[in-house]
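Hey, can you fold this one?
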Amino acid sequence: MNRIKQDAFVGTAATGGNPSVSVVIPCYNRAPLIPRAVVSVQAQDYDNVEILLVDDGSSDNTEAVVRDLIAADPRVRYFRHERNGGEAAARNTGIKAATGDFIAFLDSDDEWLPGKLKATVAALAAAPPSVGGVASRHLLVEDNGTETVVRDWTETDPITCLNLLAKGCGLSMGNTLVVRRSVFADIGYCDETLPLFVDLDWLCRLTGKYRILMLPDVLAKYYKASMRRGEFVSGAVKKFEAKNASLLASYTLKDRLRIKSRFYNYVSLAYAVNGPWHKFVTTRALHFLFNPFQHPGNYVHFLLALTGIAPIGKRT
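Sure. Predicted structure:
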């Protein structure tokens, strides 16, 4: 079992009339980025907050960086795994240690924009108990610094498990979502056996019992991460499908094909970045086969890639 060390020098959450919020920030070998994430929380116009940094067995100077943050702000709490357990384990440690009425998630390489916490907490506090969480729009930051507002189906369609599976997990759980702490006692924690799609798995359970509200405001920045290797993503898909076999079987054949197409999309994008080229072509073709009613632009982009006009994938 992975032992967890809680730093002896921790602070307590601020008190006040507003709902208390625990901000869970998992981190693994991202020491240079952690202060940016924490500062974006400290800059919020909302004070009733504790910041839980969960070090998932880092081998860099994360602990030293966090100790400096604790010395400057007693609201920061630090937990360290003796070995790396993955994103689900890190989040679960933070969730279980949280004392707030609400739990907000922020990945260590991302940041919040001003007003994020106040807007999402106010919306969740005003919502009926049937609403388990509130999310918001976010900016996608490319490697070259280009920022784009992420717009997808969540602007027009309800956030349901089927839509998350068939249209893509448009919610950025790691930097926009705020949930009631009580929902974890009802639906459980993040599944630590899944190597990927942890967010999707947990959100499907959440939407099975609660609604999620999406605010139109752009309140966070998501910094594009490196793509996992295709073999890893493909294996993760199989594990997700095996775990959720009964759920997937409950949908119509048409919906199951749409879901299958979406997973082939994830795998093909991983092969596009890391190769081999022939597996990108194969999985992308299956993506279209299982759901032929794609936007025409998807087909055009694929044809351009095949002809070498669009620089995508490694031809190995």
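The first helix runs from residue 34 to 42. Let me know if you want another pass with a different chain boundary.
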